[in-house]
Structures are given as structure tokens and as C-alpha cells.
Write a structure and sequence with these properties.
- By secondary structure, this protein is mainly β.
- The chain is built from no helices and 13 strands.
């Protein structure tokens, strides 16, 4: 597991041992939020607000408290979204695709609880479990694809997957006409 200590704009990372124990030295006297992830096993980086599990510990280092124990709770396990992103005309992988997810609140985008990042054309992506999220995939030169539910309706629709669920969505991006 990776563990992240964040204070203001500074971050310090460490990798835990097999039992989840870790030691981080040479930190400033300050207050830190502690985050963890193990994405390969389905536990996302909780430093992204969209994955916040409500259990982010805070530790304070001071002259009188130079050593502190931090217990980081990971989970619940995320849902896993997999698939491919291709050019609808050629069938070839779309170049430099990006994914954007956000917590769905009656269709309103709450930017503090969103994530916009690069992904591979053949992707595996963690989705917050048991939460409605909006989902878009896009690439330069292509129309943005939005998740519209199983019936592919006209309006964007929230995606909801329970903890540990897996779903495959293959996306064909349409090139923007020149």
C-alpha cells in the first residue's frame, strides 16, 4: 500500500510493508492528513475527494509529540470499470484519451468531487462504490462520449456500481467533422 501524508501543498509518500505498517521520518512539525491506496487490489487513492471514504485521519506532530501512530482505514473496495476506447471510423485505439468522473447530484457537477485524468485506450479504472457518478470519455479531435445508461438514452445518466462490481464499457469516439 502507498501512504500519503499531506500538509498544505506538501506531500510525503511512503510504501507500507506487507502487514500495512510504515514509518515516515524527517517530517516538519505540522498537522497532516493521511491517505492510502492499493489500486491493484481495488482500493483507490483517497486523497482524491471523489474516493473519500469519510475516514481520513489527521495527525499532528509537535515538539511534545514527535512520534504518532496513524491508523488508516481503506475501503470499501471500489468498483472496476474496464473497456476500450477506439476511433468510431477506424476502430483503432483513440489517441491520448481522458476520463472524467464526478459525484452525481441531480446532474450538477460538484468540482470538488470530480476526477479528470489520462487513461489508456484499453483501460481499467476504479469507480467510487455505491455512489452515483457521471462519466465522460474524450480525446482531442473527438466528440465527448457521456454515459447514458444501459438504454443509451439522450441525456447523461448516472453510473452506479456496488463495491467490488466489475463492468465493461467499450467506447467508440466519433471524430469531430473538419
Amino acid at each position: 500500500r502507498r501512504v500519503l501524508f499531506r500538509s498544505g501543498g506538501f506531500e510525503h509518500r511512503v510504501v507500507s510493508d506487507g502487514a500495512g505498517r510504515f514509518t515516515l521520518t524527517n517530517l516538519w512539525m505540522d498537522t497532516y492528513q493521511v491517505f492510502a491506496d492499493k489500486e491493484a487490489d481495488g482500493y483507490p487513492d483517497t486523497s482524491w475527494a471523489i474516493y473519500d471514504n469519510g475516514k481520513i485521519p489527521v495527525v499532528e506532530l509537535s515538539a511534545s509529540e514527535r512520534i504518532v501512530d496513524a491508523r488508516v482505514t481503506v475501503g470499501p473496495k471500489a468498483a472496476v470499470l474496464t473497456g476500450s476506447i477506439t476511433d468510431a471510423s477506424t476502430g483503432k485505439p483513440a489517441p491520448n484519451p481522458r476520463i472524467r468522473i464526478w459525484r452525481w447530484t441531480d446532474g450538477v457537477d460538484r468540482n470538488t468531487e470530480s476526477l479528470d485524468t489520462s487513461i489508456r485506450a484499453n483501460y481499467r479504472f476504479l469507480i467510487p462504490p455505491s455512489k452515483e457518478v457521471g462519466l465522460e470519455i474524450y480525446a482531442e479531435g473527438y466528440e465527448t462520449w457521456s454515459y447514458r445508461g444501459e438504454s443509451s438514452g439522450e441525456k447523461p445518466f448516472p453510473l452506479y456500481l456496488p463495491s467490488g462490481a466489475q463492468k465493461t464499457i467499450n467506447v467508440q469516439l466519433r471524430p469531430i467533422p473538419k
